[in-house]
Amino acid sequence: MWSFSNPVNIHFGEGVLSRLPELLDGQNYALLTYDEPWFSALADQVISQCGKPVAVLNQIVPNPDVKDLLPLCLQLSELPVQPDVLVALGGGSVIDTAKVLAAAGEDFDRVYQLLTQGSGREELVCTPIIAVPTTAGTGSEVTCWATVWDSAHERKYSLADPRLYPQVALCDPSLTHELPEFLTVCTGLDALSHALSHALESIWNKNSNPVSSTYAVDAARTIIDVLPALTCDLNNADLRNRMMEASLKAGLAFSNTKTSIAHNISYEVTLRRGTPHGIACSFTLPQVMRSVAGESEACDRALKAIFGSDLAAGSNQLESWLQGFGVKVQPSDYQYDAQDWQRLLTSALAGERGKNFIGRKEALLARYVT
User: How much is the pTM?
Assistant: First the structure.
């Protein structure tokens, strides 16, 4: 038996942002975005179409951290009128921040207590969200959780509640056209980790189901095909469209399974080594794939649909693909020796996401050479 559910109302296509005024329908809204020139111009466009928001929260930074989220909640608490809707205009960090603010309302302690103590869920506010992703990468526009970092204590939390699914996702590929090459590659690799760590991970996952696997396979195949071409032709509208669609499908895949071992590994690598999240999730994928081959007929079938009948050759193909973007794939490249890497893998397998992994610890450890 299996089930699949996703309540987000998805609108996809160039120019779909123009539907935002109709969706807001005169409600008070707060606009969340980055404090960068391109996003400021885009925010001005939204405001001209939708009217003045009750607030523009543009202090958002990559990898939302407790220290950054608290002042944003304080800013909300000082507003004379609270927003009826949060409009998240940006990448995964903006959308994740919107989910935290939606849950917290005017009081960040609501969220912090839930994250650190596991209590107080009934106190969450859960203001509606309209997500407008501007990068093809995270899939956060169709999930009900947000990653929250606490760098001061070297912790990573996941805020999760079904009420935090965005009500609407406006996926407009034209919004990605002005992204520079570095950001395109990074978010593309992030999409890979959400299509091969949110797709592969939804495939080698105890919660996998036929619908999630269908989304995952299609997303992974598209990203592997499109990303190299896109980095050589950044203004190609068709490639941008396909990349955003693949990211969306990857999000739909893992929205029902959550992630697995590659993500649990990545959290420490990001916190302690400063490795960007997309790279930290991606560099382990070839070895994880090698370790899981033969563990499950359904998993093997999905992986073969992506990489062909020879999974060993497919793992090598994936490794070469990553290296083609300059991604180093050995733990030693991230300052881990054999003993420290074994410690990290053991810890990751015991983590919440690691417990979703269908593979065996011995097989995973055996695949690494440092």
Answer: 0.92
